[in-house]
Protein 1
Amino acid sequence: MPSNNCCNEHLHELKRRCGFRTHLTFHVGRHTFATLALNRGMPIETLSRILGHTNIRTTQIYARITNQKISQDMAVLAEGLSEVEGELLVQI
C-alpha cells in the first residue's frame, strides 16, 4: 500500500498534467468520495465501514446535508405517501 505522501505526489502530478487548479490530495479525494456516496444514497453506516471508522460520529463529518439531498429525500417521501394515499382510497 503506498504511503499518503506517495499518493499525494501522484495526485499532484495528475493535477499538473490535467491543468487543475484545485488543491488535490488523498484526503480531498476521500472526502469527495464520502460526500458523493452519501448524496447518492449510500447509508452512513455502510460508508462508515468502508472508510474504516470505528465510530459513526467520525463519518458524520462527511454528512453535510445539501439542498439537493433534501429535495431527493422529500421526493422519495412524497412518492411513498402518494402510494399509501392510493391504497387507502382503494380500501374506502
Note: DSSP finds five helices and no strands in the chain.
Protein 2
Amino acid sequence: MLDPLPPRTMLGNFEPLLRLATGGMATVYVARQVGAAGFERIVVIKRVHPHLLTNSAFYDMFREEARVSSLLHHPNAVPVTNVVEWEGELLLVMEYVESTSLSTLNKNVRHAGKRMPLPVIIRIIADTLHGLQAAHEALDMRGNRLDLVHRDVSPQNIVVGTDGVSRLIDFGIAKARHSLTDTREGSLKGKFGYMSPEQTKGLPLDGRADIFSAGVVLHETLTGKPLFHCANEFEAMRRINEDAVPNPSSILTDLPSILDPIVQKALQKDREKRFQTAADFLEALENAISAAPAKDVQAVLKTYCGERLARRRAALQAMLDGTLEPLRFTEADDRQTTPSHASQASQASRRDALTIRDGPETHSSVTNDTRATPAVTTKRKTVIVAGAIAAIVAVSIAIALAIGRPPTLMTSVASIGPASSHLSALWAPTASASAADSASAASDAGETPDAASSATRKPPPRVVVPPKPELHGNPYGDQ
C-alpha cells in the first residue's frame, strides 16, 4: 500500500484532493490537473502502487488497461484519457464523473428498508448493457475488432451519475484478442460472486461471460440478496457451476414473473444458451419493462446518496478555494477493511494458489489501511507478557512454600526484564500492604505485635492475582 500523501502533494501536474478508493493494485484519487495559462480541471487518477511496477506483468497490465480504455468512446463507459509516467510512478487519468457505485446505492437503499423502483433498475442495467455492447464491438485505430471482454462486471464497477446515466468503469483486467500482454488462459481474474461458469474454469472467454455477470447484477439488484456469495471462493465456484438459479419472483413475490425467463437466459451455465450479445439481452429487458427516464434515476440517487455526494462536492469546492487542506476529507461511511497483515498474507496465499488477480475497486468507498495493525500486535504482546509473568509468579510462590520461605514477588517480576517493567506495579505487593497483612495475622492469633516479633515472624504467603489485560475486538470492524 502507498503511504498517505501529505497535503499539497503534486504528482506531476496533478494535485490529489480526495481519495476515492484503495485496492490491491492502485489508489484512486479525485485530483486537480493544472497546466499553462491557468488551465485546470477535475479528473480521476489511478496511482499504481510503486512496488508493483517492478513486476513487468503488472506494468504491462496497467499499460494495457490504458490502451484498451482509450479506444472506448461511449456515454456508458468511462475511458482512460491519458497515462502519465512520473518519477518512476504510473498514473492513469480518467474523466471525473460525479457518481456513486451501484454497490453503494444498493447498500443505502437496503439500509433505508426500501426497494429501488423497478423501472430505475431496468434503466441502470440497460445503461450497463449499452456500455458492454460498445466494449464488445470496439475497434482499434485501424478498424480491427478488439473482441474486448471486461471480465469484472459487478456493482462496484457500475457507477450511477448525478446526470441519471450509469457507466461501466475499470477495465483493469479486460482482455482484448490482440492484447499486448500475455494473459494466459487458466488464470482467474475478477470477483468470484460474478464470474461466469467458463470463467471459473479458466476457459477462453468472449462477451457472453460479461452477459452472465450482468445477469448476476440484475438478479441481486432486483431481489436485494446475494446470489453466489459464499464464505470461500471454492464454494462460490461450485454454486456457479452446479446450483439452479432461483427465479427473482420466487424470492420477492411482487416482482413481475415476466422478468424470470430473461434472468434465467442471461444466467444459463451453457453460454450457447445465453443471450449471445449484450444488445439481445438489452432488447429483451426493455421489451418486458419500460426503463425509467434519467430524471427518475437522478431522483433515486439524490434520495439515497444525495447527502454523501453533497458533502463530497462541498469538500472539493473548499479544497479548490483553499479553505480545506487536500486529502483531509473522508467519506462518512468509509470503512477500514484490512483485518491484519496476517490475514492479508493468508488471503494472498490463497489467491496465489488459484492465480487470481483482483483489480482495485475504483469509485467505491473502501479504504484498505494497515497503519493500525501495529497497535493490535502490541496488545497481543502485552497479553503474552502478562501470561508469562503470571506463570513465573505462580512458580515462585510454589517454590517458596515448598522451602518455607516467603515469596518475593517484586524480585520475580523484576527478573523478567525491562519489557515488563511497566507491569511491575500491578504485580508486586506494596510495603504498606505487607505490614497490614502482618498486623492482621498477629491480631488473629491473639498476640500484640512489637518490633522484635514483627522482625522474626514470617508472614503468610500472599498470592497476588494480576488484573486481566484489557482485550479489544477487531479494530477494523466485522468483515
Note: The mean pLDDT is 74.
Protein 3
Amino acid sequence: MLFSSIPFLFYFLPVVLILYFAVPKKLKNTVLLLSSLFFYGWGEPKFLIFMLISITQGYVFGLLIEKYHGMKRSKVFLVASVLLSLGILGYYKYADFFIENFNALTGMSLPLLRIALPIGISFYTFQILSYAVDVYRGDTKAQRNFINLAAYISMFPQLIAGPIVRYSDIALQLENRTHSIEKFALGVRRFVIGLSKKILLANLLGEVVAVFKATSDPSVLFCWVYAFSYILHVYFDFSGYSDMAIGLGKIFGFDFLENFNYPYISSSATEFWRRWHMSLGSWFRDYLYIPMGGNRVSKPRFFFNIFVVWMATGFWHGAAWTFILWGVYFAIILIVEKLFLLKFLQKTHILKHIYLLLIVTVSFVLFDAANPLEALERIGAMFGAKGLPLVSSEAIYYLKSFGVILIISAVGATPLPSKLISALGKKRTGTAVLTFAEPLVLTALLTVCTAFLIDGSFNPFLYFRF
C-alpha cells in the first residue's frame, strides 16, 4: 500500500486514526503494530513472515546482548544478530546479482533464484542492525516489550521509504509520547505538503523521464531536459515520502528526524551529502565509517575507508553495478575535494554551485541507468559524444509543456518559498493572511492530489528498486 493512493488516504488511514485515538494509552502501540502489519502485508502477505522473523531475532538477541553485557557472549550474540539480518537482506536483495556475476566470470550457467524483493527490507534491516549495535555499545537499553519493539520496526509511516529511524531516537517516545491538536495539525500539514510534492511535482517530472526513455527523436537538449527532470523527480519523490512519514509520525505523537535539507543549494559534494538522505548518511557514518577509524587514521587508510563506505552506500540502493559505480563515483569526488578541491571551491561563488549541480546531475544519470553502458551513452550524449542534433522538435515540445513544472520544481528545491512564508509570518497582516489561507491551500492541494489519483495518473513507486 502506498501513501499516494486512494485506499491509504480514504480507507486505511481514517480507520487507523479512529482506532488509535479510541483505545487507551497502553493499547496504542498494539494498534500501531497491527495496522502496520496490515499495511505491509496488503500487497504480498507472505513477506510478513520474513519481517516477523527479523523482528523476533532482533528482540531475542537484544535481550541476550544486554544480559551478557561486557562478556564475550554479548559480542557473539551481536555477531549472530548482524549475520542473520544481513543474511536475510543479502539473500533476497543480492543473491541473483552474485549468481549472475559468478556465471559471467566462470562461464557457468547456474539458475537464478528470481526472488521477489520484500518492500522496505533495506530500511527495517538497518533499523534492527542499529538497535542491536546500540544495545551492545550500551547506548540504549534493550526493549523488553515485544509489541513496542515490533511497533518501532514495522511502523508504517517510515517502513517502506524511510527515514531510517533509530531506536535510540524514539525509545522514550514509544512508551511516553504526547498527543495534541497542535501536533496533529502540524502532522497533517507536513503530510499534505509531502503528498503534493510526490503527486504534483515528482510524478509529472517522472513523465518527462519516461518519455525520454521511449523517444525516437533524441537530441542533446532532450538529454539535459531528461537529466534535470530526473534529479528533481528523485528529490521530490524521496523528500515527499520523507515529509509524509514525518507528518504521519507527528500525527501519532512521534518526532522523526529530518531527512533532507535543500541539498541542491550545496556548494560541494561534501555538503550535499550532509543534506541528502541524512538518516542514511549518518547511519553509515556511525555504524561503518567511524568503527573503521573514520579520518583518524593514515591517509591511505582514510581513503580506503571512504571507498568502502561509499561502495556500501551504492550497493545498499540496489543489486546492480550502476549503484556500485555511483558509490565509487562519489567516493572519488569526495577524496578529491578533501585533497584540494574544497579549498578552491570556497574561494568561488557561483562556480561552486554550478560544479555541484553538474556532478550531481551526472551521478543521477548513472544512478538511473539500467547498466553501465547505458549510463555511459546517456552521459556522452549530454556532451555531444554521440553526434546527436543539439535540438529536436520533441525536446522543444516537452520543454514547452513541462517548462513551468521544471521552474516551479527548481524553485521549490530551494529555501526561497520557506523564507518568503517566514518573512510574511513576521508581519501582523501576514500572520492573519497565513492563518486564513493555510487551511484553504492545504485543502485545495489535497483535493487536486485526490483528483490526480482518481484519474489514475502516472504514479510510480521509486523504492521498488531498493
Note: Residues 183-267+346-454 form one domain.
Protein 4
Amino acid sequence: MQLLSDLKPGDTLGRYEILMPVARGGMAAVWAARLVGSRGFQKIVAIKTMLPEFGDDPAFEAMFLDEARLASRIRHPHAVEIVELGDENGVLYIVMEWVDGDTISTLNKQVKSTGGVPLPILLRIASSICAGLHAAHELRDDDGKLVDLVHRDISPQNVMVSFDGIVTIVDFGVAKATGRLHETRVAGQLKGKIPYLSPEQLTSGKVDRRSDIFSLGVLLYTTLSGYHPFRGRSDAKTMENILRFAPVPLRELVPDVPFDLAVAIERALAKDPADRWNDCASFQRTIDQIAISLGIAVSDGDVGHFVRDTLGDIVSERRKKLATAIQLADSRMSSRGESRTASSVRGERRSKRAPAGNTPLPATFAGILPVSLDEPSSKPSSQSPPGSRALPVASAPPSLVTPAPRARQKWRRRVFLTLLVILLLLTGAAFAARAGLLPVPSEVQDVLRDGRLLLRGARDLLRGVLERLSALLAD
C-alpha cells in the first residue's frame, strides 16, 4: 500500500505522474504532476494530498473530500478549477489546474523593499479577487438555492497571480457551506490563518460571505501599507486585536492612498458584519470606480508584466526545476519502454495493424504512463495504468483472415502454372522444329531429328502436372 510519506517524483496517482513537490501547508502538500497522452500530448496539473499525519484522521479526510466537492462546482476564471478527485491505494488526492505564477505573499515579500505593489496594479488584483469570491459566494445547488459557501481562509498565501496576470483563489480546504458534510472546527482547533480570521470566526459566531470580505480587507491593508492591521506578538494578542481594537488608519501609514479606497478598506474591516460591504460585488464596483478615477487603464497583461519583472528570478528557477523534472520523467518513461521484450513489441504492432474493418484503434495510455507505484521492473506489465480504464481492442472477424494453409496452397498453384506454361512453350517449339517451321542450328538438328522420345517425355510430364493441379483445385 502506497503511503503518503512515501510519495516522490516518478510515482503515479491515478493517471498522473508526480514531477516535483511545490508547496507544503498545515494540512496538505501540493505537487506538480502531469497527464501524458498520445502523440506527444501532456498537461501539467497541481495535485494536493493530505499530509501523512492526517492520513488516518476521518475528520480531516471528510474536510478534504468536502473541498473537492464544493470547489469543483465553482466555474469562474478567478477560482481554481478542480479537475478530479482520486483515491489511489488509500491516498486521497485532488487534481487542480496548474497556475503558472506565485502567491500574493511571495509578491509582497519581493516588492517590500521597492515601495510595494503599484496602486493601479493592486486595484486590478483586488477587483479580480472580489469577482472570484463573489462567484463562490453565489454558488447554488441543483435546485438553484444558495449553498452559502464561504472560503474562510482568504490570505496572501491563498491568492495566486499567474505570469499572465490572471488572479486565482485557491485552497477551499476549510470552506463553509450549508451542504458541507463536516465542520471546519476539529478537536477545538481553529481552521484558517489566525491573522486573517474575522471576529465571528474567532468567537464561533455566524459566518457568512462578509467574513471573507473582512479577510480581504486585511489582505489589502497589508499589501498597501506593508503592515498587518492586527498582528501582535503572539496569536493570542493578534486575536485580541481583531476582536477589540481598530487598526491604525490606513492613510496615516500611506498618505498617498486615495481617500475613497481607505474608507472602502476600513468598511471591510468593521467588527460588526452588518457594517461591512454586503457582498463582494459591491466592494468590486467601488474598487473599479476608484481605478477609473486614477485615469490609468490596467489590463491583466499589465499585471502579468509586473509579476514577471518582480518575480523574474523565481520564475526562471521554478520553470527550470519543472523542465528538469519533466526531462527526468521522460527518461524514466524511455527506460520503461526499452525494457519491453521484442515479442511484446511485435504483438503490439500486430494488434495495431489488425483492427476490425476500418475502425481506428482507441487511444490508450498503455506504455506511456507508469503502470505501477512500485519501481519499474524489466518485464512489461500486463495491467492497465492505475485509475484508467482498459479499452478493448477488437480483432478482425474470421471471414477477413486468410488461414496459413490456404496461403501455402496459393503459392503452389503459381509455381505449377508457371511450369505448365514453360512445358507448353517447349512442346510447341519442338513441334515447330520438327515441321521445319522453326529454324534450328545444325548442331541441334541431330538431337531433334528423332523427337518422339522428347514428345513422349513431355507428354507424360504434362499429364502428371495436370493431375496434380486438378487435385489441388479440388481441395
Note: The first helix runs from residue 58 to 71.
